[in-house]
Amino acid sequence: MPEELPLHDRRSQGGLLHDNHSRDGHPSQGMNGPRRSLSQDGDAADNRSPLRPITLLTQAARQLTDGDYAVELPVIQDDELGELSQALIDLAKTLEGRYRELNRIDQITSRINAGLLLDEILENVYQDFRELIPYNRIGFALIDDDGQTVRARWARSDQPRLKLKRGFSAPLAGSSLEQIIDTGAPRILNDLPAYLRQKPESNSTRLIVEEGFQSSLTCPLIANGVPVGFIFFSSVAPHTYDHVHIEIFQRIAAQLSVIVEKGRLVSELAAQKNAIERQNKELLRLNDLKNTFLGIAAHDLRSPLSVIQTAASFLLDPSVEMSDAERATILQEVGEQASYMLGLLDELLDVAQIEAGKLELRAEPIEVSAFLAEAVQRHTRIAAQKSIAIILDSSPPGAARADRFRLRQVIDNLISNAVKFSPAGGVVRVAAKSGEDCWRITVTDQGPGINPLDRDRLFQDFARLSARPTGGERSTGLGLAITRRVVEAHGGQIDVDSRPGEGSTFWFTLPR
After folding, report:
1. 116-143 confidence digits (pLDDT tens)
2. Are 39 and 51 within 8 A, CB to CB?
3. What is the pTM of this model?
4. CB-based contacts of 500: which residues, under 8 Å, 6+ apart?
5. Measured between alpha carbons, how far is 443 from 441 in angstroms, rounded to an integer?
6. Rounded distance between C-alpha atoms, residue 228 and residue 141, angstroms
7. How far apart are the first and last CA of the chain?
8. What CA–CA distance (Å, rounded) separates 281 from 269?
């Protein structure tokens, strides 16, 4: 074995120091504590005593085993031992780099795992993964519970266009994604436009290319042996991804999959909790509505029933003498009270039906001008009793698509309200204008207008407003609430333009 160089010769020929101090005179530290001098455990009595190369190499190997990667070895003249020495130094550098990398990955996954809900976790992935894998976009897709469909769940990009959005779905069976799940290995596509030319039927690839991306890395997520979804890394530059990125992902794939699955389950539980809370609130609201119904029925039906009962008693009492005119007056009152009760019951049933989600529309084309003319004609006689004129402004030709019965319910309610709150000698105007995609129908009166305090309650159930009908007419407070629901069921909007003392214009829209 060649003679070992003395300590001063090792330094002069490029060998590393063996003492416990670095070149600046401070104690040297390794990865797991103070750096040890290889000569401390050797056969020599002090640092000046030469050590046999094999002893130094053995101590270096033990140092690496202990996790101290700051290995320092002298220059060894023996070729084979010199190669072994260099190999140990190279191994120390590799292990130290791997240690730092794993430590960084652990820090990143810890930050990612700090998220509770799935969206929070994915946002953390988007923020932190740049240190591991290059990308301009990250997409995430879940496999449906039936295992047959892949559905886009989340995406973030630094590019202006996002075309492959949440909700996009595709069959898993027979797709390239199924192959990725079967093999468990990520897939690299470094020329997406070329791949799209080969598979023009791939809608997801087409959308990604339209967003401006050139290369992608698709990684499966498999938690506890069960495929849960995919993470898609995409770059605007071609040939971005290499096997090193696959290796990095595979080091954390299992942990990341479990984290994502945890987030998905927590998100589902949170969504179910919110849904249950909404259902409970809706049940409470419906229960309050039911109680209000009963209160309205008890209060508003009691009075007309009493009138009818009293009238029936007069008509049936043989001891009561009355003229034909008096008898006709009583019968007319009975008819009016019965009509009011039927109207109230119809409105209550309408609200109950709408609230139960059972409002069915039988839409058909309706010529708007003719439909409004019929409505004006129906209300003209009643309005004339209050010396109120109803005028139909000229309307352009054309049709709206609506349920005829429900649309009549809407326009009748608005015209009757306008007549109800207009003064004697007033005018009610009905008009329709045609826009690009909808009709706008208006009913304008000369009544007292809407008080600002009443404005927010106008279309609510059982809204009793401060304004009073000019002819003493009765109101259930349900008409406008039903009207709003019917208009919205047609895909339209309803509102009012009004100032106190200047009348009101109620308007609603219908799709063309």
Report:
1. 688 888 888 888 888 788 999 999 999 9
2. yes
3. 0.46
4. 448, 449, 450, 451, 452
5. 7
6. 9
7. 100
8. 18
